[in-house]
């Protein structure tokens, strides 16, 4: 008898595993792209987030806006974020390039009638504005308030301590179960004392425990006692 060749199906489990792993792979890729995009210049990255404060760039940017700047070579007309060496404390300024070269850019705010006293060049330029997110900075300003954080922590603790509805129902069910009678039978206090056969009445004795002289009079005699003698039968005619 010849052996039939077995048909080998495609490796379906491997394909299914690959499909299941695809969302995770896409998630990690997205996280890597976002991390690369927002990695700050202070940590060797190429992104600078600037919270606008003041009126020098109105109406382009107003207080509370966030501007995302990316490293690159600016040109005249670009809005850049720079940190002049002459200002202590690593202060950043976001203004527009109105002239100059890479050796020193001439800067001016859109709402200012005068030029900046600084001409940033080289490492002083942190990045060119790429993304504008209006009013989001107001949220950061709100969360920078200590009382807001205290209120949020108190609310979180209250939510952790306060029992949920399901837990309350479980506690009530436990109390109800404690009040229900046990199925283990009557307790020792409720169980009647065991009586000996001599103390039981004929009605409480089983047929095997009844004496020959006592029992049920099924012929209508006295209950609890057998007849003294059997009834005499009259001869039939």
TrEMBL record:
Compositional bias ranges of the Acidic residues kind: 167-187
Subcellular localization(s) per the UniProt record: Membrane
Any single GO CC term annotated in Swiss-Prot or TrEMBL for this entry: membrane
GO biological process, one term: signal peptide processing
Enzyme Commission designation: 3.4.21.89
Enzyme superclass (EC): hydrolase
Region: Disordered, residue numbers: 165-237
Residue intervals passing through the bilayer: 21-39, 146-162
CDD domains: Peptidase_S24_S26
Coarse class of the protein's main subcellular location: membrane
Span of domain Peptidase S26: 28-100
Acetylation recorded as keyword: no
SUPFAM superfamilies: LexA/Signal peptidase
MF terms in GO: serine-type endopeptidase activity; signal peptidase activity
Protein name: Signal peptidase I
């Amino acid at each position: 008898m010849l052996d039939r060749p077995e048909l080998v199906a495609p490796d379906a489990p491997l394909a299914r595993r690959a499909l299941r792993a695809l969302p995770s792979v896409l998630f990690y890729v997205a996280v890597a792209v976002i991390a690369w995009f927002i990695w700050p210049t202070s940590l060797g990255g190429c992104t600078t987030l600037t919270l606008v404060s003041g009126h020098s760039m109105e109406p382009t940017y107003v207080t509370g806006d966030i501007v995302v700047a990316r490293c690159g070579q600016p040109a005249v007309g670009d809005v850049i974020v720079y940190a002049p060496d002459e200002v202590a404390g690593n202060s950043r300024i976001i203004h527009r390039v109105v002239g100059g070269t890479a050796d020193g850019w001439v800067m001016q705010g859109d709402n200012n009638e005068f030029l900046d006293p600084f001409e940033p060049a080289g490492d002083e330029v942190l990045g060119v504005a790429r993304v504008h997110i209006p009013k989001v900075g107001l949220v950061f300003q709100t969360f920078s308030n200590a009382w807001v954080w205290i209120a949020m922590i108190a609310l979180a603790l209250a939510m952790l301590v306060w029992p949920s509805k399901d837990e309350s129902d479980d506690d009530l069910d436990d109390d109800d179960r404690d009040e229900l009678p046990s199925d283990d039978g009557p307790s020792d206090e409720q169980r009647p004392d065991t009586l000996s056969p001599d103390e039981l009445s004929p009605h409480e004795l089983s047929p095997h425990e009844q004496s020959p002289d006592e029992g049920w009079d099924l012929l209508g005699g006295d209950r609890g006692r057998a007849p003294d003698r059997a009834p005499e039968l009259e001869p039939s005619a």
